[in-house]
UniProtKB/TrEMBL annotation:
Organism, scientific name: Ignatzschineria rhizosphaerae
Keywords of the record: Hydrolase, Metal-binding, Zinc
Name of the protein this chain belongs to: Adenosine deaminase
Domain Adenosine deaminase: 15-335
Cofactor(s) essential for the protein: Zn(2+)
Protein family membership: Belongs to the metallo-dependent hydrolases superfamily. Adenosine and AMP deaminases family.
Gene3D superfamilies according to UniProt: Metal-dependent hydrolases
PANTHER family noted in UniProt: ADENINE DEAMINASE
InterPro entries documented for this protein: A_deaminase_dom, Ado/ade_deaminase, Metal_Hydrolase
Length: 368
């Protein structure tokens, strides 16, 4: 077969899952401006740019993802606003090879009833599946900056209005003063009603015990972030042995600020340490437009910044399929079709990435 794909083209085309994506983190800047105009909310283009890394400058403060969510949730005041956002996000996703998405969103942060937003998003998801062959589902997420009682209220909404596009619950926002155990009642209620469980733990350099608590007290099936697990060798070995999936984000702002020189990532970054320890990691984008990333850029970082070869990339894709909250029959089909497609596209590469220094030595990930 004639080789014709560059590496960026290959990474864009290869089929992939996205298990850690905040719905409103994917809002296009023009959409934010349009919605502000629609509701007569003051927002200049300069202010809008402050939420998006692509427009960040050294002499200006980037407000970042959480600030963007705090601005956007009150701004989306009609179900049609959610429909527009969902349609545009899925269009962006399918253009970078994403075939399956599980979206976090925060029902307690919107004034629109949970049932109405769920139905509006599901309508778009169903159309996208027909038009683009991309599957999308929802993970209502606890805003841990709110009260545990509000978290229980969110789970109660989910129980009272079950929907096949809603898979389980998560937890996000600032973890500093809101460790996951505060929300045990909401998680227990969700588990009792057969909802799947994941949660943001040990982000922003916070203690590894939040991962341990998430696993042992809350019963999480997946961990989102979880980077300080590398500070506890016993816990890291346990997570590898038990094949606990971790969704990891190459564009995570904490480590970008800690090590602005990406060459340091090749030595120090937890993502590399987690992979070398044989843990199950799934690269994720978190907030596409806020973080100036996408499905292609995410995997480019795995190669450039963390030294993954294409066998490692393939393993990450397999990890994502295995960790998706879908029936085994569906995932078996994806494993067969998507990995075959990956191999076919790989055969068309003009040249595979070369590793010419010690930090780029490819390593073999455990095949769980």
């Amino acid at each position: 077969m004639t080789r014709q794909l560059t590496l960026p083209e290959f990474l864009r085309k290869m089929p992939k899952v996205e298990l850690h994506y905040h719905l409103l983190g994917g809002v296009r800047m023009n959409t934010m401006l349009d919605l502000a105009k629609k509701y007569n909310e003051p927002l200049t283009e300069k202010d809008a740019k402050s939420y998006y890394r692509a427009f960040a400058h050294e002499n200006e403060v980037m407000k970042g993802g959480i600030a963007a969510l705090n601005f956007l949730y009150p701004l989306l005041r009609a179900t049609e606003d959610y429909e527009r956002v969902a349609y545009e996000i899925l269009e962006d996703a399918k253009n970078t090879g994403v075939r399956y998405v599980e979206f976090f969103w925060n029902p307690n942060d919107t004034e629109i009833p949970y049932q109405e937003v769920t139905l509006a998003l599901a309508k778009v998801f169903e159309q996208a599946e027909i038009d683009w062959n991309i599957s999308a589902y929802l993970i209502p997420s606890i805003n841990r900056e709110k009260t545990p009682e509000e978290a229980v209220e969110m789970v109660t909404w989910m129980i009272n209005f079950p929907h096949p596009r809603v898979l389980g619950i998560g937890i996000d926002y600032r973890e500093d003063n809101a460790a996951i155990e505060k929300f045990w009642k909401a998680y227990r209620l969700a588990a009792q009603n057969n909802l799947r469980l994941t949660g943001h733990c040990s982000e922003f350099g916070l203690h590894w015990r939040n991962v341990e608590t998430g696993l042992d007290l809350i019963g999480l099936e997946r961990i989102d972030h979880g980077y300080t697990v590398v500070e506890n060798a016993e816990l890291m070995a346990r997570c590898a042995k038990e094949a606990i999936p971790f969704t990891v984000v190459p564009s995570n702002t904490f480590f970008m600020k800690k090590w602005p020189n990406h060459s340091e990532w090749q030595i120090n970054h937890p993502i590399r340490q987690m992979a070398k320890a044989g843990m199950i990691i799934i690269p994720a984008t978190d907030d596409w437009h806020m973080h100036d990333t996408n499905g292609q850029k995410c995997y480019q970082s795995m190669i450039k910044d963390f030294g993954f070869d294409l066998d490692g990339v393939r393993q990450c894709i397999l990890n994502g399929i295995n960790a998706a909250w879908q029936p085994e029959t569906t995932k078996a089909k994806w494993r067969q079709e998507w990995l075959t497609e990956f191999d076919t596209l790989r055969a068309q590469l003009i040249e595979e990435p070369q590793f010419d220094n010690a930090f780029h030595t490819p390593y073999q990930l455990n095949n769980h």
